[in-house]
Amino acid sequence: MIGKITGRIDYRASDHVLIDVRGVGYLVYCSERTLAALPGVGEAVALFTDLVVREDLMQLFGFQTLVEKEWHRLLTSVQGVGAKASLAILGTLGPDGVSRAIALGDWNAVKAAKGVGPKIAQRVVLDLKDKAPGVMAMTGTLAEAHGEVEAAQVIEPSAPQSRAAPASNQSAQAEALSALANLGYGPGDAAGAVAQAAGENPEAQTPVLIRAALKLLAPKG
User: Fold this and answer.
1) Residue 128, SS3?
2) Where are the alpha helices (DSSP H) in the chain?
3) For the ranges 16-30, 77-91, 169-183, 201-215, which has the lowest average pLDDT?
4) Is the predicted pLDDT of residue 124 greater than 80, yes or no?
5) CATH of 4-64+140-154, one of 3.10.150.10, 2.40.50.140, 2.60.40.420, 3.40.50.2300
6) Which SUPFAM superfamilies does the record associate with it (predicted)?
7) What are phi and psi of 49, to 5 degrees?
8) Which of 9, 53, 77, 133 has its CA 20 to 30 A from that of 221?
9) Which CATH class, in words, describes the domain spanning 170-213?
10) pLDDT tens digits for 9-47?
């Protein structure tokens, strides 16, 4: 299994990049959102990857974060969702958006992805709603996984360094989930509240998310 690729971008296409790793080129398919965030041709890059092997096909899919990779794995486990549909969903919503949509049961957000109909969107939400808390609790970007250090070892020293992935409040969401769990809230309810709070205030840090989620979880009336 190829779990990560670190090298230099040789070529960019509409749905994939060609990454040179010490003279060996790897075609890596990515979502539109991930492709847009990658550096230019000739620059260093590192991607977490998932290798799909079929009888007549081998394809490598690339992701900037472990959260994005995990959502791809889960999305493709849903009946009727292939790699193309999964990348479309991730490209439309991003990994944080997928977490929020599924935690909140918002299948209309999932349906906004190209090629994803209402039945598939509803199935995605139904099948993966219980998995959302676990994914939201994951943290770690490529920079945190020492991708830049490894890039320096794999490519020529004079090559430009890769750009770090944009920061998100994924860590704050994970910490808020943990705090709510310690307070006795169920994972599903906690995930939905944290997702809603994060959606309303994307830059919120942990204390703000916890307070907002507690207000959402408070009994009405």
Assistant:
1) helix
2) 32-37, 66-75, 83-104, 107-111, 118-128, 132-136, 147-154, 170-182, 187-200, 206-217
3) 169-183
4) yes
5) 2.40.50.140
6) DNA helicase RuvA subunit, C-terminal domain, Nucleic acid-binding proteins, RuvA domain 2-like
7) -135, 160
8) 133
9) mainly alpha
10) 999 999 999 999 988 899 999 999 999 999 999 999 999
